[in-house]
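Fill-in record for NAD-dependent protein deacylase.
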Amino acid sequence: MTRPDQAAENLLRVKEKVRDASRVVVLTGAGVSAESGVPTFRGAGGLWRQYKATDLATPEAFARDPRLVWEFYNYRREVLAPLEPNAAHRALADLERAKESFVLLTQNIDGLHQAAGSRNVVELHGNIWRVRCSRCGNRKEDRRVPIPYPPVCESCSGMLRPDVVWFGESLDPDVFRLAYQALERCDVMLVIGTSGVVQPAASMGLYAKENGAFVAEINLEPTPYSRALSVSLQGKAGDLVPQVVV
Ligand SMILES: [Zn+2]
């Protein structure tokens, strides 16, 4: 645990770095969404019916039982639909408007950053409010709750799936390239609300630091990367992010 005076000093240091930076990259994870009430569906209490998310959010589950996977995603849509951005989302949207170059990388699929006004968002794991054809790859926004079953592609009649990256799938190569370009070019990076276990996002902070950026982590608790980054701040994103980006 960081001493209180040390914590205040660290906070001030991050605030100054953010203020002086012209090229900023932010990476957000589940911790930011959690403060808006988004459940993770992983770990204890994260069950839907008797299933774990890790058993349903996979290409194998979709091939085996697409109806069941769609029922799970319709349930998730229902949970997400009324949720709203929190103070961290709003502060990051403000920060984007103040910077010459700003890229927001997110592991979250809920669209809350865009709802808060963020524009340059790179969605590492896709977006639950989009569907994608499992045959021809066509994508489109579809915010219906629920999506009627079976959802069928207008161009090829293939089965539509949620446009999200499932367990065992790799990131879209275009998204991957955009993310790494931004990491190589930024002066300051903030890593917010990520547990530091889901790759490649977990190592992105280190990558930016190796490329010369000042990298600060904001998370409820220390992560495996805390000591390797420039500064680690512990606390709620909704409290800390507005303080460092003013
Ligand atoms: Zn299609």
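KEY FINDING: Residues 4-38+85-125+171-245 form a domain with the Rossmann fold fold (CATH 3.40.50.1220).
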